[in-house]
UniProtKB/TrEMBL annotation:
One Pfam assignment: DUF2383
Domain spans labelled DUF2383: 11-121
Name listed for the protein in its UniProt record: PA2169 family four-helix-bundle protein
Domain of life the protein comes from: Bacteria
Alphabetized InterPro entries for the sequence: CHP02284, DUF2383, Ferritin-like, Ferritin-like_SF, UCP029477
Amino acid sequence: MTSTDENRKEIVDTLDGLIEILEDGKLGYTNAAEHVENTDMKHNFIQYARERALYIVELQDEINRLGKSTDTSGGGVLGSLHRAWIDIKSTFTSGDTEAIVNACITGEEAAIEKYELALKKEEIQPTQSALISKQLNGIKAVLMRLKANS
């Protein structure tokens, strides 16, 4: 494997990892929207889930640009939720708005950690770094809104 192939694989693996946490967040926000009573919060959670879906498409487009198909990307990813979102379903079924928001905060903090690690990878190219940074800023903004509501 050439250095370029190795770099490409490392980049794709990094982007796939971000897709995994975004899939978890999308599912988490969808579940939150189903279980929260407050109409404004329900709308916000739906919006956050849509935002995560958009981020996933942006990262998949980047993976495709690198020459790797994303048709199979996410197959195993969807089956294994990130540890930060694992217990969210049981939290949500209680209908406790504060618990739901706190679970979302925990998930977003985990996402931010994963994004910050991705930005430290040497293989990441400037265009990818810009995309990751843009998404990271969006996630941080959501986290600030969640914390303001908790």
